[in-house]
Design brief:
With 192 residues, the protein is mostly helical. Helix content is 86%, strand content 0%.
Length: 192
């Protein structure tokens, strides 16, 4: 159980900052890479669901290692059905369109993660410590997002630069801030 908790924690520590960056900088990234600002809405939805995708991948590996291939097939079929039904019903909604596909994809990842997590928890017979593993990375991400939103305009005013330079600088600042907050929260736990 401890190894599973460590695996989930490592997944979250590595995944949350990446998804945070994709969420916060969706528009500049979409402009720089695709020259398509409206795609930012889709990237934000997929970034929010991306956390579940990476957790699902970790749990899939664990279940494969335990020889639970049949359970993985069943869980994959269920989450795939969620994806197909979501695409069918959400993309045909005139208010959602392609956004419905992003929502369906994120829902598919969430359902796949949840099914794998619940099965693994039941099979192991104890809690896997997901809440504890997720607390610091998610708290650090929330504080980082709040601090960034409050002070981002100072970076843009203080340093006139190109869009690419500004995006790189802001990405580095957010990544360093997240890392510093994660270390700070970790030190607070160690001192208790």
């Amino acid at each position: 159980g401890r190894r599973i908790t460590i695996s989930l924690r490592a997944t979250l520590i590595c995944t949350v900052p990446g998804m945070l960056l994709l969420y916060l900088f969706a528009e500049p990234y979409c402009i720089l890479i695709f020259n398509n600002a409206p795609a930012a809405q889709l990237l934000r939805i997929l970034a929010a669901g991306g956390i579940f995708f990476y957790l699902q991948v970790s749990l899939t590996s664990i279940l494969q290692g335990l020889g639970e291939v049949r359970r993985l097939l069943i869980n994959s079929l269920i989450s795939g059905a969620v994806l197909l039904l979501g695409i069918r019903f959400l993309t045909t909604n005139s208010h959602l369109g392609i956004v419905g596909a992003a929502i369906a994809t994120s829902a598919c990842w969430g359902v796949g993660f949840l099914l794998n997590y619940l099965y693994l928890r039941r099979r192991c017979g104890f809690s896997l410590g997901l809440a504890k593993a997720a607390f610091d990375p998610i708290l650090a991400a929330l504080f980082t997002a709040f601090i960034y939103r409050e002070f981002a305009h100072f970076i843009n005013i203080s340093f006139p630069m190109t869009r690419l330079s500004a995006t790189i600088l802001q990405t580095l600042i957010v990544a360093l801030l997240y890392g510093a907050l994660l270390l700070l929260f970790r030190k607070l736990h160690v001192r208790k």
